[in-house]
Specification:
single chain, mainly alpha, two-stranded antiparallel sheet, 25 helices, 2 strands, 64% helix
Length: 598
């Protein structure tokens, strides 16, 4: 028997000691009484518990009618919120183009930098982040290749960077669900799996392309085997629905962005002032039901121009000021609509409805054809992205559904891969509509983009054991659920700071980039290898490397960084205040302390 403690003082119990309270016989067979402290709590990756919506046959006719009306209003609110959510994404893209399009064009001008594959990769990432549109970035690359300002070989790393930059939209959308820990864990893992897939594909294919030019040669073979004829425009169903609203707010002249990259730029504003010419058949998108074009052959050329009809026509504000206004407004609308969508989904997807939706979306084919379910999901993701004409909208819609528990990560992963394929088929059809002098270059760039994503699927999906983005995203989701500020760090480092650092080093020359970046990449790979061996084969390592305990705490744990961030962060979103309160209450609870076997 251990000796009694002097003075009747109890030592501060640890979390393991507190957990012993649940071993009391009166708690046998029941769930733990201290949620949040135990590790065997509810699995955040499992679907949340369904709420019972009640039996329809047990309510009166008036109650049934009221439930039907409320359900109809919820459906209308959900569709309306989704519509304005998509419109806000379009306005957000316009805002980023106003803020960074001229800079994006200036970045593309330096051919000496573009000759470096790593620099081309980070330029593709930065430009896509700046303009928030992979279609705009791809059109700039096509124009530069067609104008002989950029070779096809130099365009391949840029296309890879464009593919990586598109995943920032879903990451931004997932941040709106940071209020609920479990929802944020699932939503952020869904956005992270897309970015991890893109980065892993780049890490494999960029060195391979530099050594063998595989994608360039494959695109040339496909181009030579096809007899190309200029085709029509790709179907644009989504923009046909959103443009009547978004064109009332802002319209941009995309030719100014392309011209700034091809050295045909003027100092004109990116905001479109004139939308067509009266009496010109087939001209322009500005001639719509809101501003019909009428014939006037006797007017002067200046009078023949049809002015656009949006909020910023003739404004005295600069592009930068308009960009900041649109950025603030679109982010406010986007976050508001996303919160409404999540709330309405949580309200609508309950009971049998939620069970039916989850069963349909996450269903597998019967044995032995269950492996075909993922490939069907890839086709569904590609088809929906092709219909929506926007991979950003599709991925931004998948993330909230993951957060509320409708789609699991294993099913969302092939849907996102299909979205990558769908956006390349859209670009391919758009390339077929290019002028004859640019047709071959446009189609080859689109084929390179397609083969890049197809190779990524073959690498990271075809063999189940190589589907590494799924466990990595789950691990990342667990980390961000515990330390929410890690999500912001990931966003800044993956899409801004690291690309900017690599771009700055590439400006100093390829030798400087190799001298600084090579050892850093080697160190990161060594640390990853040691961590894997520590977990699975520690006997293979020397004694000093079997644990990182000999390092300072801030080098092998996030706890000191968490205390620093939560101390500096005035908001509660960065802190674990609820967990801290639960632990403190357990320390002060005499019943729990008395139940421990000291």
């Amino acid at each position: 028997m251990p000796n009694s403690l002097a003075g009747g003082q109890f030592p501060n119990p640890t979390l393991d000691a507190i957990d012993l309270a649940d071993r009391n016989p009166r708690n046998a067979g029941t769930s733990p009484s201290i949620p949040g402290l135990e590790e065997a709590g509810p699995d955040p990756w499992a679907f949340p518990q369904l709420k019972n919506t009640g039996q329809m046959k047990e309510v009166s006719m008036a109650s049934r009618l009221r439930m039907v009306v409320i359900g109809f209003l919820k459906a209308c609110g959900l569709l309306g919120s989704l519509y304005f959510f998509i419109c806000s994404l379009d306005i957000l893209s316009s805002a980023f183009q106003l803020l960074g399009s001229k800079m994006a064009g200036d970045i593309f001008k330096d051919n000496a930098v573009l000759s470096n594959p790593v620099a081309g990769l980070v330029i593709g990432v930065l430009v896509t982040v700046l303009v928030q549109s992979s279609s705009t970035s791809s059109s700039i690359v096509v124009s530069m290749v067609a104008s002989k300002l950029l070779t096809v070989q130099a365009s391949v790393p840029i296309i890879m960077g464009v593919n990586v930059g598109t995943s920032i939209t879903s990451t931004l959308v997932s941040m709106a669900q940071s209020g609920d820990r479990d929802e944020f864990q699932r939503a952020f893992s869904g956005s992270a799996v897309h970015g991890i897939f893109n980065w892993l594909t780049v890490l494999v294919l960029l060195p391979l392309e530099g050594a063998t030019a595989a994608l360039e040669r494959l695109s040339e073979l496909a181009l030579g085997a096809a007899s190309l004829q200029p085709g029509g425009q790709a179907p644009d169903i989504l923009k046909a629905l959103t443009q009547p609203f978004t064109h009332l707010i802002i319209q941009l002249d995309s030719s100014v962005i392309t011209g700034s990259a091809t050295s045909n730029t003027t100092n004109s504003s990116l905001i479109k002032q004139w939308c067509g010419v009266r009496g010109e058949t087939g001209s322009d998108e500005g001639c719509s039901i809101f501003s019909p074009c009428t014939e006037n052959s006797t007017a002067s050329p200046e009078e023949n121009k049809v002015p656009c009809h949006h909020l910023f026509v003739g404004t005295g504000l600069t592009d930068l000021a308009v960009g900041f206004i649109l950025l603030a407004g679109s982010l406010l609308v986007l976050c508001t609509c996303l919160v409404l969508i999540v709330k309405l989904l949580n309200s609508v997807l309950q009971g049998r409805i939620a069970q039916a939706v989850r069963t349909v979306i996450n269903a597998d084919f019967p044995f032995p054809f269950g492996w075909l379910s993922g490939y069907l999901a890839i086709l569904v993701g590609a088809g929906l992205t092709f219909l929506l004409q926007s991979s950003s909208v599709f991925t931004a819609a998948i993330v909230p559904l993951m957060g509320v528990g409708v789609i699991n990560l294993e099913r969302a992963y092939p849907l996102l891969l299909g979205s990558n394929i769908g956006t390349t088929t859209t670009a391919l059809l758009a390339a077929l509509a290019s002028p004859a002098d640019r047709l071959l270059f446009a189609v080859q760039v689109a084929l390179i983009h397609f083969f890049f994503n197809l190779a990524g699927i073959l690498l990271w999906y075809l063999v189940p054991v190589l589907r590494l983005p799924i466990p990595l995203a789950k691990r990342f989701g667990d980390l961000t659920a515990q330390y929410r500020w890690v999500a912001i760090v990931y966003l800044l480092f993956a899409f801004l700071l690291l690309p900017l650092a690599a771009f700055g080093l590439s400006l100093a020359g390829g030798s400087v980039l190799a001298a600084v970046g090579g050892p850093l990449v080697g160190l990161v790979l060594l640390i990853v290898l040691v961590n894997i061996l520590q977990r699975h084969r520690p006997s293979w390592l020397p004694h000093c490397l079997r644990s990182w305990a000999w390092l300072p705490l801030w080098l092998h744990s996030l706890e000191p960084w968490d205390r620093l961030v939560t101390g500096c962060c005035p908001c509660r979103a960065c802190s674990n205040s609820s967990m801290t309160t639960k632990v403190a209450n357990c320390y002060e609870n005499p019943e729990i302390i008395a139940s421990q076997q000291l």
